[in-house]
Amino acid sequence: MSALQGRAVYDFEGDVANGELTFQADDLLHILNQDVGEGWWEAQNANGEQGLIPEAYVEIISYSEPTMPPPPPPPSYGPPASAGPPADTTDNWQQPVETQSFNNVSETRDYSQHENQVSPESYEDAWDDDWEDDNSSTTEQNLPGGGNFGLSQPNRDTKASSDSTKPGGTVKKSFSRFSTFAKSGGEAYMMGVMPTTKVSETDLVPIIETQNGYEWTPLSEVFSCQVTSPKKESKLKGLKSYIAYQLIPSFSGIRVSRRYKHFDWLHERLEEKFPTVCVPPLPDKQISGRYEDDFILERMRQLTYWVDRMCKHPVISRSEVFAHFVTCTEDKGWKQGKRRAEKDEFKGGNWFLTVQAPPSTLDQEKTESDIDQYYKFIKTMDDSVKKMLAVNQDSMRKHCGPFKKEFQKIGSAFADISKSFELDDRPCK
Hints:
The protein is α+β, with helices and mostly antiparallel strands. The chain is 32% helix and 16% strand. The strands form three sheets. It has a five-stranded antiparallel beta sheet, with no helix packed on it. Helix 7 packs antiparallel against helix 8 (331-342). The chain is extended, with a radius of gyration of 34 Å.
């Protein structure tokens, strides 16, 4: 299979030390490997540079069609030709191939014995399976097509569309900017094709109308959660070590022990269950220096901020999976709740079935105006953040390079002045 082609949707500044590839929006990339994992692909740009790229930043265009010569003529099963000069069997793709006519066949031959004598090696140079027509018939005698040997031209689009269910991009695959939204089931909910499921009263998430617009029902009592007492523990007789943190919710005061991977599991469940709630990211994972005191204290501080923010959210703080995370103390109960959360029927698109809208009808014009205003805000904010990051990165490079030398010169000048003052032994007045 030839390399898959894609077009960059966003700019990406890659980290060369980690093998990442830098590209700009609308750049054409050749996808070399889609099995890297963790949302990363391996690609090559127009300059021949290779590296890792984020999957979400690339739009699949098409497969490059293989540049192969036309297929060889089928074997002849007729009687041996009369003696004459030997035929030129040299493959010359520059010369036109004579098409053999199968029209007006006047005699029927039994080819079954000849077919059994054909060795498998004779088919090794045939067309790739992706370009063969599986529905072609072998009993027709009139072949009026415009291709070689009277056959029809291959229909690439039909074959490509039949493979659209396979993983990865195809020729006919259309790229959707809302692929994550569609994958979660939000698009199916908006189109009214979600399966009807009965929702209990305890699972309903009501929305209320206030003077400032529509909001989630606020919390009657806001609680907090502390992350304290990090401790290095081990399992498998010391073969695997980890840091365990103690969580103390304010409404119960009961300590629960959680590792970083438990926080990561909760983050995945929240993103999967609530497609319209912005769940903030966790602190980055660390490979080296995980057991240093400064790193552990800083991670504990960041985890505390993250959990407190989740406690203040009117939807997440009421969810069953979050309550299970901050209250479960037994290993058996933790595993049961973990499986129950992973099999939750009201996650993704089904979660919209639990949202209880207010009875009042929305004003269509005002709603469209609010959507347009929000879109402009998001676009402006996105551009401003990108510009701010670019300016900060440029300033950081300057301060680490030429600016650093200039400041060192200024410091050296002040140091020389201080030495001059040391030579003056007159008393100060």
